[in-house]
Amino acid sequence: MAMLAKQVGANRVVTGVKIPNPCGDPRLPEEADRTLRREIVRCALGALQTDVGSPTIFVPDLAYAL
Amino acid sequence: MEKVRVMHYLNQFFAGVGGEEKGDVPVNSCEGPLGPGKPLQTLFGDIAEIVVTAYCGDNYFPARREDALNSILQIARNYDIRILVAGPAFQAGRYGFACIEVCHFLSTSLGLSCVTGMHVENPAVEGYKQYKDRRVFALPTGESTRGKGMEDALSSIAKFVSKLTTDSSIGSASEEGYIPRGIRVTEFVNKCGAERATDMLLEKLAGRSYATEIPIESFEAIPVPAKIANLSRVQLALGNTAGANPVGNPDRFTVGKNTRWGKYRIDNFDSMKDGKWDFIHSGFNTSFMYENPNYGAPLDVCKEMERERMFKLYPYLYSTSGGGGMVLDMQSIGKGIARDMKAEGVGAVLMVST
Protein backbone atom coordinates (compact mmCIF):
# COMPACT_ATOMS: atom_id res chain seq x y z
CA MET A 1 0.00 0.00 0.00
CA ALA A 2 2.92 2.31 -0.77
CA MET A 3 0.70 4.49 -2.98
CA LEU A 4 -1.75 5.06 -0.14
CA ALA A 5 1.09 5.98 2.25
CA LYS A 6 2.35 8.50 -0.31
CA GLN A 7 -1.16 9.94 -0.80
CA VAL A 8 -1.63 10.59 2.92
CA GLY A 9 1.73 12.37 3.06
CA ALA A 10 4.39 9.95 4.34
CA ASN A 11 7.59 11.45 2.90
CA ARG A 12 9.84 8.40 2.65
CA VAL A 13 7.93 5.25 1.74
CA VAL A 14 9.55 1.87 1.04
CA THR A 15 7.56 -0.76 -0.83
CA GLY A 16 7.15 -3.95 1.20
CA VAL A 17 6.45 -7.40 -0.21
CA LYS A 18 2.78 -7.85 0.71
CA ILE A 19 0.30 -6.62 3.30
CA PRO A 20 0.38 -9.75 5.54
CA ASN A 21 4.19 -9.93 5.26
CA PRO A 22 5.75 -6.57 4.41
CA CYS A 23 9.30 -7.58 5.44
CA GLY A 24 9.71 -10.93 3.74
CA ASP A 25 8.14 -13.69 1.72
CA PRO A 26 6.98 -16.94 3.38
CA ARG A 27 7.16 -18.75 0.04
CA LEU A 28 10.96 -18.38 -0.04
CA PRO A 29 13.42 -20.73 1.67
CA GLU A 30 14.65 -19.32 5.00
CA GLU A 31 17.95 -17.91 3.82
CA ALA A 32 16.53 -16.22 0.73
CA ASP A 33 13.72 -14.77 2.88
CA ARG A 34 16.25 -13.29 5.28
CA THR A 35 18.30 -11.89 2.38
CA LEU A 36 15.15 -10.27 1.00
CA ARG A 37 14.36 -8.79 4.41
CA ARG A 38 17.84 -7.37 4.63
CA GLU A 39 17.46 -5.78 1.19
CA ILE A 40 14.20 -4.12 2.25
CA VAL A 41 15.90 -2.67 5.34
CA ARG A 42 18.92 -1.65 3.26
CA CYS A 43 16.59 0.23 0.90
CA ALA A 44 14.92 1.94 3.89
CA LEU A 45 18.29 3.01 5.28
CA GLY A 46 19.12 4.40 1.83
CA ALA A 47 15.87 6.38 1.87
CA LEU A 48 16.78 7.89 5.26
CA GLN A 49 20.07 9.07 3.74
CA THR A 50 18.45 10.56 0.62
CA ASP A 51 17.13 14.09 0.20
CA VAL A 52 13.48 14.20 -0.82
CA GLY A 53 11.26 17.22 -1.50
CA SER A 54 7.89 15.52 -1.11
CA PRO A 55 6.37 12.05 -0.58
CA THR A 56 8.62 9.60 -2.41
CA ILE A 57 8.41 5.84 -2.89
CA PHE A 58 11.63 3.81 -2.73
CA VAL A 59 11.55 0.32 -4.26
CA PRO A 60 13.88 -2.39 -2.92
CA ASP A 61 15.46 -4.79 -5.36
CA LEU A 62 12.92 -7.59 -5.03
CA ALA A 63 14.72 -9.90 -7.43
CA TYR A 64 14.62 -12.46 -4.64
CA ALA A 65 10.83 -12.40 -4.38
CA LEU A 66 8.87 -14.99 -6.31
CA MET B 1 -36.36 4.13 -21.77
CA GLU B 2 -33.50 1.65 -22.01
CA LYS B 3 -31.86 0.74 -18.72
CA VAL B 4 -28.44 2.30 -18.19
CA ARG B 5 -25.69 -0.34 -18.23
CA VAL B 6 -23.79 -0.48 -14.94
CA MET B 7 -20.68 -2.40 -13.87
CA HIS B 8 -20.32 -3.13 -10.15
CA TYR B 9 -16.85 -3.51 -8.59
CA LEU B 10 -16.49 -5.57 -5.39
CA ASN B 11 -13.68 -7.06 -3.34
CA GLN B 12 -13.33 -10.80 -2.77
CA PHE B 13 -15.31 -10.71 0.46
CA PHE B 14 -18.43 -9.01 -0.88
CA ALA B 15 -18.24 -11.04 -4.08
CA GLY B 16 -18.66 -14.13 -1.87
CA VAL B 17 -15.29 -15.67 -2.76
CA GLY B 18 -13.92 -15.66 0.78
CA GLY B 19 -12.21 -13.68 3.52
CA GLU B 20 -8.58 -12.74 4.15
CA GLU B 21 -7.39 -16.14 2.91
CA LYS B 22 -8.71 -15.20 -0.55
CA GLY B 23 -7.12 -11.75 -0.59
CA ASP B 24 -4.89 -12.70 -3.52
CA VAL B 25 -7.57 -13.63 -6.03
CA PRO B 26 -6.94 -11.91 -9.36
CA VAL B 27 -9.56 -9.96 -11.30
CA ASN B 28 -12.59 -11.99 -12.26
CA SER B 29 -16.11 -11.18 -13.36
CA CYS B 30 -19.57 -12.60 -13.71
CA GLU B 31 -22.67 -11.41 -15.50
CA GLY B 32 -25.34 -9.70 -13.46
CA PRO B 33 -25.23 -8.60 -9.81
CA LEU B 34 -23.40 -10.36 -6.95
CA GLY B 35 -23.68 -9.98 -3.18
CA PRO B 36 -24.80 -6.42 -2.34
CA GLY B 37 -25.33 -5.86 -6.07
CA LYS B 38 -28.57 -7.83 -5.82
CA PRO B 39 -30.41 -5.49 -3.43
CA LEU B 40 -28.79 -2.61 -5.32
CA GLN B 41 -30.33 -3.92 -8.55
CA THR B 42 -33.74 -4.00 -6.87
CA LEU B 43 -33.29 -0.37 -5.84
CA PHE B 44 -32.30 0.57 -9.41
CA GLY B 45 -35.65 -0.69 -10.67
CA ASP B 46 -36.04 0.19 -14.35
CA ILE B 47 -33.47 2.99 -14.36
CA ALA B 48 -30.29 0.92 -14.51
CA GLU B 49 -29.05 -2.63 -14.79
CA ILE B 50 -25.91 -4.21 -13.32
CA VAL B 51 -24.87 -6.14 -16.42
CA VAL B 52 -21.56 -7.32 -15.01
CA THR B 53 -19.77 -7.54 -11.66
CA ALA B 54 -15.98 -7.35 -11.54
CA TYR B 55 -14.06 -8.28 -8.39
CA CYS B 56 -10.58 -8.97 -7.11
CA GLY B 57 -8.74 -9.60 -3.86
CA ASP B 58 -7.91 -6.85 -1.36
CA ASN B 59 -4.23 -7.84 -1.45
CA TYR B 60 -4.08 -8.56 -5.18
CA PHE B 61 -5.17 -5.03 -6.12
CA PRO B 62 -2.38 -3.00 -4.44
CA ALA B 63 0.24 -5.60 -5.35
CA ARG B 64 -0.72 -5.73 -9.06
CA ARG B 65 -2.45 -2.40 -9.46
CA GLU B 66 -1.75 -1.79 -13.14
CA ASP B 67 -2.67 -5.31 -14.23
CA ALA B 68 -5.84 -5.18 -12.14
CA LEU B 69 -6.90 -1.80 -13.55
CA ASN B 70 -6.31 -2.91 -17.14
CA SER B 71 -8.28 -6.13 -16.63
CA ILE B 72 -11.18 -4.23 -15.09
CA LEU B 73 -11.07 -1.69 -17.92
CA GLN B 74 -11.29 -4.50 -20.46
CA ILE B 75 -14.37 -5.92 -18.75
CA ALA B 76 -16.00 -2.49 -18.83
CA ARG B 77 -15.23 -2.21 -22.56
CA ASN B 78 -16.54 -5.70 -23.31
CA TYR B 79 -19.85 -4.93 -21.64
CA ASP B 80 -20.30 -1.41 -23.02
CA ILE B 81 -20.72 0.10 -19.56
CA ARG B 82 -22.02 3.62 -18.98
CA ILE B 83 -21.75 3.91 -15.20
CA LEU B 84 -19.44 2.24 -12.68
CA VAL B 85 -20.49 1.57 -9.09
CA ALA B 86 -17.73 0.48 -6.69
CA GLY B 87 -18.21 -0.84 -3.15
CA PRO B 88 -19.50 0.45 -0.74
CA ALA B 89 -16.24 0.05 1.17
CA PHE B 90 -17.21 1.58 4.56
CA GLN B 91 -13.97 1.84 6.57
CA ALA B 92 -12.00 -0.85 4.75
CA GLY B 93 -8.79 0.89 3.63
CA ARG B 94 -7.62 -1.58 0.97
CA TYR B 95 -11.11 -1.92 -0.52
CA GLY B 96 -11.65 1.86 -0.42
CA PHE B 97 -8.32 2.42 -2.15
CA ALA B 98 -9.23 -0.06 -4.90
CA CYS B 99 -12.66 1.59 -5.35
CA ILE B 100 -11.16 5.06 -5.82
CA GLU B 101 -8.43 3.79 -8.15
CA VAL B 102 -10.88 1.82 -10.31
CA CYS B 103 -13.28 4.78 -10.46
CA HIS B 104 -10.57 7.24 -11.47
CA PHE B 105 -9.04 4.89 -14.05
CA LEU B 106 -12.35 4.15 -15.75
CA SER B 107 -13.32 7.80 -15.62
CA THR B 108 -10.12 8.90 -17.39
CA SER B 109 -9.99 5.93 -19.79
CA LEU B 110 -13.63 5.78 -20.85
CA GLY B 111 -15.17 9.04 -19.59
CA LEU B 112 -17.49 7.04 -17.30
CA SER B 113 -19.36 8.55 -14.39
CA CYS B 114 -18.44 6.57 -11.28
CA VAL B 115 -20.10 6.29 -7.88
CA THR B 116 -18.59 4.72 -4.79
CA GLY B 117 -19.42 4.79 -1.09
CA MET B 118 -17.18 4.85 1.98
CA HIS B 119 -16.87 6.32 5.46
CA VAL B 120 -15.40 9.85 5.50
CA GLU B 121 -12.48 8.55 7.57
CA ASN B 122 -11.51 5.89 5.02
CA PRO B 123 -7.85 6.58 4.13
CA ALA B 124 -8.80 6.35 0.45
CA VAL B 125 -10.75 9.62 0.72
CA GLU B 126 -7.40 11.41 0.60
CA GLY B 127 -6.61 10.00 -2.85
CA TYR B 128 -10.18 10.83 -3.98
CA LYS B 129 -9.61 14.47 -2.98
CA GLN B 130 -6.23 14.60 -4.68
CA TYR B 131 -7.59 13.24 -7.97
CA LYS B 132 -10.30 15.95 -8.10
CA ASP B 133 -12.01 13.89 -10.77
CA ARG B 134 -15.28 15.55 -11.82
CA ARG B 135 -16.79 12.24 -12.88
CA VAL B 136 -16.08 10.36 -9.63
CA PHE B 137 -18.42 10.73 -6.66
CA ALA B 138 -17.81 9.13 -3.25
CA LEU B 139 -20.92 9.05 -1.06
CA PRO B 140 -20.47 9.04 2.73
CA THR B 141 -21.54 5.84 4.47
CA GLY B 142 -21.63 4.57 8.05
CA GLU B 143 -18.66 2.78 9.56
CA SER B 144 -19.73 -0.76 8.65
CA THR B 145 -22.53 -2.97 7.37
CA ARG B 146 -23.83 -3.40 10.95
CA GLY B 147 -27.48 -2.63 11.50
CA LYS B 148 -28.79 -0.71 8.52
CA GLY B 149 -25.31 0.22 7.33
CA MET B 150 -25.44 -1.63 4.00
CA GLU B 151 -29.09 -0.81 3.37
CA ASP B 152 -28.51 2.92 3.87
CA ALA B 153 -25.34 2.92 1.75
CA LEU B 154 -27.03 1.13 -1.16
CA SER B 155 -30.03 3.41 -0.95
CA SER B 156 -27.78 6.45 -1.14
CA ILE B 157 -25.87 4.98 -4.12
CA ALA B 158 -29.06 4.06 -5.97
CA LYS B 159 -30.52 7.56 -5.55
CA PHE B 160 -27.31 9.13 -6.82
CA VAL B 161 -27.06 6.82 -9.82
CA SER B 162 -30.66 7.63 -10.64
CA LYS B 163 -29.80 11.33 -10.57
CA LEU B 164 -26.82 10.71 -12.86
CA THR B 165 -28.94 8.88 -15.41
CA THR B 166 -31.81 11.38 -15.48
CA ASP B 167 -30.11 14.71 -14.83
CA SER B 168 -26.78 15.64 -16.36
CA SER B 169 -25.94 18.47 -13.96
CA ILE B 170 -24.83 17.46 -10.48
CA GLY B 171 -24.59 20.31 -7.98
CA SER B 172 -22.09 21.00 -5.22
CA ALA B 173 -21.10 18.47 -2.58
CA SER B 174 -23.17 20.23 0.08
CA GLU B 175 -26.25 20.21 -2.17
CA GLU B 176 -25.96 16.63 -3.44
CA GLY B 177 -24.43 14.96 -0.36
CA TYR B 178 -21.25 13.46 -1.81
CA ILE B 179 -17.86 13.81 -0.10
CA PRO B 180 -16.32 17.12 -1.34
CA ARG B 181 -13.43 16.81 -3.76
CA GLY B 182 -12.14 20.32 -3.30
CA ILE B 183 -13.08 21.39 -6.84
CA ARG B 184 -13.86 25.12 -6.93
CA VAL B 185 -16.65 26.12 -9.27
CA THR B 186 -17.58 29.71 -10.19
CA GLU B 187 -21.27 30.56 -10.08
CA PHE B 188 -23.48 33.64 -10.15
CA VAL B 189 -25.47 34.68 -7.05
CA ASN B 190 -27.72 37.64 -6.29
CA LYS B 191 -25.56 39.53 -3.80
CA CYS B 192 -22.11 40.89 -4.56
CA GLY B 193 -19.04 39.77 -2.60
CA ALA B 194 -18.96 42.86 -0.37
CA GLU B 195 -22.54 42.24 0.79
CA ARG B 196 -21.95 38.52 1.35
CA ALA B 197 -18.76 39.17 3.33
CA THR B 198 -20.54 41.78 5.50
CA ASP B 199 -23.45 39.38 6.14
CA MET B 200 -20.97 36.69 7.18
CA LEU B 201 -19.16 39.06 9.55
CA LEU B 202 -22.44 40.19 11.17
CA GLU B 203 -23.45 36.56 11.73
CA LYS B 204 -20.06 35.78 13.24
CA LEU B 205 -20.10 38.80 15.56
CA ALA B 206 -23.60 37.88 16.76
CA GLY B 207 -22.44 34.35 17.51
CA ARG B 208 -24.76 32.85 14.87
CA SER B 209 -23.68 30.12 12.48
CA TYR B 210 -22.40 31.03 9.02
CA ALA B 211 -20.89 29.10 6.12
CA THR B 212 -17.52 30.05 4.72
CA GLU B 213 -17.30 30.20 0.90
CA ILE B 214 -13.68 29.06 0.91
CA PRO B 215 -13.14 26.13 3.29
CA ILE B 216 -9.44 25.62 4.02
CA GLU B 217 -8.23 22.10 3.21
CA SER B 218 -7.73 20.27 6.50
CA PHE B 219 -4.97 18.03 5.24
CA GLU B 220 -1.52 19.34 6.14
CA ALA B 221 1.62 18.37 4.33
CA ILE B 222 4.14 16.79 6.69
CA PRO B 223 7.43 18.74 6.63
CA VAL B 224 10.21 16.61 5.18
CA PRO B 225 12.90 15.76 7.72
CA ALA B 226 16.44 16.30 6.43
CA LYS B 227 18.37 13.23 5.31
CA ILE B 228 20.62 11.52 7.83
CA ALA B 229 24.24 12.50 7.20
CA ASN B 230 25.91 9.81 9.27
CA LEU B 231 23.73 6.80 9.98
CA SER B 232 26.30 5.02 12.14
CA ARG B 233 25.93 7.71 14.81
CA VAL B 234 22.14 7.67 14.86
CA GLN B 235 19.85 5.77 17.20
CA LEU B 236 17.37 4.04 14.92
CA ALA B 237 14.01 2.86 16.28
CA LEU B 238 11.80 0.13 14.88
CA GLY B 239 8.04 0.57 14.90
CA ASN B 240 5.01 -1.28 13.55
CA THR B 241 1.29 -0.78 13.05
CA ALA B 242 0.52 -4.50 12.93
CA GLY B 243 -0.38 -4.49 16.63
CA ALA B 244 2.68 -6.46 17.83
CA ASN B 245 2.30 -6.94 21.57
CA PRO B 246 3.77 -9.32 24.13
CA VAL B 247 1.49 -12.36 24.33
CA GLY B 248 -1.57 -11.54 26.40
CA ASN B 249 -1.92 -8.00 25.01
CA PRO B 250 -0.94 -6.24 28.25
CA ASP B 251 -1.53 -2.77 26.78
CA ARG B 252 -4.98 -3.83 25.61
CA PHE B 253 -4.80 -2.84 21.97
CA THR B 254 -8.09 -3.34 20.19
CA VAL B 255 -8.31 -5.09 16.81
CA GLY B 256 -10.15 -2.12 15.31
CA LYS B 257 -10.35 1.62 16.15
CA ASN B 258 -7.41 1.22 18.49
CA THR B 259 -6.38 4.23 20.58
CA ARG B 260 -3.25 2.91 22.35
CA TRP B 261 0.42 2.41 21.70
CA GLY B 262 3.22 0.72 23.59
CA LYS B 263 6.92 -0.03 23.46
CA TYR B 264 8.52 -3.38 24.25
CA ARG B 265 12.10 -4.41 25.04
CA ILE B 266 13.95 -6.08 22.18
CA ASP B 267 17.56 -5.51 23.26
CA ASN B 268 17.91 -9.09 24.51
CA PHE B 269 16.62 -10.56 21.28
CA ASP B 270 18.50 -11.42 18.11
CA SER B 271 15.23 -11.93 16.26
CA MET B 272 11.54 -11.30 16.88
CA LYS B 273 11.25 -15.10 17.19
CA ASP B 274 13.12 -14.85 20.51
CA GLY B 275 10.02 -13.21 22.00
CA LYS B 276 6.39 -14.29 22.21
CA TRP B 277 4.06 -11.94 20.38
CA ASP B 278 0.42 -11.40 19.63
CA PHE B 279 -0.65 -9.37 16.59
CA ILE B 280 -3.79 -7.49 17.50
CA HIS B 281 -5.21 -6.36 14.15
CA SER B 282 -8.44 -7.15 12.32
CA GLY B 283 -7.46 -5.74 8.94
CA PHE B 284 -5.22 -8.44 7.45
CA ASN B 285 -4.26 -12.10 7.76
CA THR B 286 -1.87 -12.13 10.75
CA SER B 287 -0.96 -15.84 10.46
CA PHE B 288 2.27 -15.13 8.53
CA MET B 289 3.46 -12.78 11.26
CA TYR B 290 2.64 -15.30 13.97
CA GLU B 291 4.74 -17.79 12.01
CA ASN B 292 7.60 -15.31 11.59
CA PRO B 293 7.17 -12.06 13.53
CA ASN B 294 10.19 -10.58 11.71
CA TYR B 295 7.75 -9.91 8.85
CA GLY B 296 6.15 -7.24 11.02
CA ALA B 297 9.36 -5.80 12.47
CA PRO B 298 12.60 -6.91 10.74
CA LEU B 299 14.54 -7.32 13.98
CA ASP B 300 16.70 -10.27 12.87
CA VAL B 301 18.39 -8.36 10.03
CA CYS B 302 18.46 -5.09 12.02
CA LYS B 303 20.42 -6.80 14.79
CA GLU B 304 22.83 -8.17 12.21
CA MET B 305 23.29 -4.69 10.73
CA GLU B 306 23.74 -3.21 14.20
CA ARG B 307 26.56 -5.69 14.87
CA GLU B 308 28.12 -4.43 11.62
CA ARG B 309 27.93 -0.93 13.17
CA MET B 310 25.59 0.45 10.54
CA PHE B 311 23.51 2.18 13.25
CA LYS B 312 22.56 1.85 16.92
CA LEU B 313 19.21 0.16 17.44
CA TYR B 314 16.89 1.67 20.08
CA PRO B 315 16.25 -1.10 22.62
CA TYR B 316 12.44 -0.97 22.41
CA LEU B 317 9.99 -1.79 19.63
CA TYR B 318 7.27 0.84 19.22
CA SER B 319 3.92 -0.64 18.44
CA THR B 320 0.33 0.22 17.73
CA SER B 321 -2.56 -1.30 15.79
CA GLY B 322 -3.83 0.58 12.74
CA GLY B 323 -6.88 -1.52 11.78
CA GLY B 324 -9.87 0.75 11.08
CA GLY B 325 -8.05 3.52 12.91
CA MET B 326 -9.80 6.89 13.19
CA VAL B 327 -7.56 9.64 11.78
CA LEU B 328 -7.62 11.84 14.89
CA ASP B 329 -6.74 8.87 17.12
CA MET B 330 -3.90 7.81 14.84
CA GLN B 331 -2.54 11.37 14.82
CA SER B 332 -2.67 11.42 18.59
CA ILE B 333 -0.86 8.05 18.76
CA GLY B 334 1.75 9.32 16.29
CA LYS B 335 2.35 12.45 18.35
CA GLY B 336 2.67 10.41 21.54
CA ILE B 337 5.21 8.05 19.98
CA ALA B 338 7.17 10.95 18.43
CA ARG B 339 7.37 12.76 21.79
CA ASP B 340 8.71 9.61 23.44
CA MET B 341 11.23 9.06 20.64
CA LYS B 342 12.54 12.62 20.90
CA ALA B 343 12.90 12.35 24.67
CA GLU B 344 14.82 9.09 24.19
CA GLY B 345 17.20 10.53 21.58
CA VAL B 346 15.88 8.51 18.66
CA GLY B 347 17.13 10.08 15.41
CA ALA B 348 15.47 7.92 12.76
CA VAL B 349 12.59 5.45 12.50
CA LEU B 350 11.73 2.42 10.42
CA MET B 351 7.94 2.14 10.72
CA VAL B 352 6.58 -1.06 9.24
CA SER B 353 2.98 -0.71 8.11
CA THR B 354 0.63 -3.35 6.76
- Biggest interface and residues each: A-B, 33 and 51 residues
Rg of chain A (CA only):
12 Å
Q: Report the sheet with the most strands of chain A, covering strand number, pairing sense and barrel closure.
A: 2 strands, parallel
Strand order of the largest sheet of chain A: 1-2
DSSP helical segment count of chain B: 11
Q: Which regions of chain A contain 5 or more consecutive residues with pLDDT less than 50?
A: none
Bin the strand percentage of chain B. 15-25%
CATH topology of the largest domain in chain B: Rossmann fold
What number is the mean pLDDT of chain A? 91
Let me know the number of strands of chain B. Answer: 12
Total helices of chain A: the number is 2
Kindly describe this structure.
The complex is a heterodimer of chains A (66) and B (354). Chain A has 66 residues and is mainly α. Chain A has one domain (2-58). Chain A is built from 2 helices and 2 strands, in the order αβαβ. Chain A is flat, with a radius of gyration of 12 Å. The two termini of chain A are 19 Å apart. In chain A, 42% of the residues are buried. Chain B is an alpha/beta fold. In chain B, helix 4 (93-110) links the parallel strand 4 (83-86) and strand 5. A 6-stranded mixed beta sheet of chain B has the order 2-3-1-4-5-6, with helices on both faces. A 4-stranded mixed beta sheet of chain B has the order 9-11-7-12, with helices on both faces. A two-stranded antiparallel sheet of chain B has the order 8-10. The mean pLDDT of chain B is 94. Chain B is 33% helix and 19% strand.
